[in-house]
Amino acid sequence: MKHIQSAKNPQVKQWKKLLTKKEREKTHTYLIEGFHLVEEALNHKDEVVELIITEDTNLPTSWDLSNIPLTYISPEISREISDTETSQGVFALCEMKKANISSLENKKYLLLDAIRDPGNLGTMIRTADAAGIDAVILGKGTVDLYNSKALRSAQGSHFHLDILAGDLKEWIDRLKTAGTPVYGTALEGASSFKEAEPGQTFALLMGNEGNGVSKELLELTDQNLYIPIYGKSESLNVAIAAGILLYYLRA
Questions:
Q1: pLDDT tens digits for 225-251?
Q2: pTM of the shown model
Q3: In a designed cystine with 246, which of 61, 109, 131, 159 is the match (CB 3.0 to 4.6 A)?
Q4: Where is the RNA 2-O ribose methyltransferase substrate binding domain (predicted)?
């Protein structure tokens, strides 16, 4: 057990660097914050490097902290490394999980093309988890999975799914070869989502908040779908649309 009091401590400076994507990618580590996320991390202890606790913070007695290094910090340091306005004072340093998709057959996938908003990314990961999706593939231009807002929005679901970055063209080809139907999403030249056949295996492709799925990728799918708009809104939020389609497509 360690105690750090000064915000000028080199360890504190390193933690602060992890608020940047560059440092996270360099070290393959990231910080999470808050009781719920830390508790989820402790359910996957092999990914937890260290727990960082603000002094006088009471931890749940149900937490299994065996073999987890603990570092206690001052409230000043907590404010330095927090990415929220009102920190709960509980952090965990975690290692990035390496996805392991051993077989492509008979699984459900969510493919994301250039999702820019971290809140949308996290919400879609959380929804995919709830819908029983097996893997999420992050295409080019998609915001960093370990962005703090994305992690908060995912609410720990990134611990439950295989999530990896990849070339969506290659993934669509691989999935179709494996017999997995691939559904794109579009506003024009598409069928109502209710015309799709729910199944035990599928891949759903969602696109950028402003531009949607790229035309190049839409030309590779088996079928492109849209969700009818009955009111005056021009479109649905991409995370809401993903939730509707994921739950409809799964058998």
A1: 999 999 999 889 999 999 999 999 997
A2: 0.95
A3: 131
A4: 31-100
User: Apex CA 182: angle with CA 181 and CA 183, to 5°?
Assistant: 120
Overall domain count for the chain: 2
Where do runs of H (alpha helix) occur along 156-196? Answer: 168-177
For 180, counting Cβ atoms within 10 Å of its Cβ (0-12 exposed, 13-18 middle, 19+ buried), the class is buried
Residue 100 lies in a domain: no
**What distance in Å separates the CA atoms of residue 87 and residue 77, rounded to the nearest whole number?**
11
User: Are 159 and 199 in the same domain?
Assistant: yes
* DSSP helix, strand, coil percent of the chain (3-state; round to 5): 35, 25, 45
Residue corresponding to tokens 């393959």: 28
Q: What is the pLDDT of residues 192-226, one digit of tens each?
A: 999 999 999 999 999 999 999 999 999 999 999 99
Is residue 209 within 8 A of residue 120, CB to CB? The reply is yes
Say whether both 86 and 142 belong to one domain: no
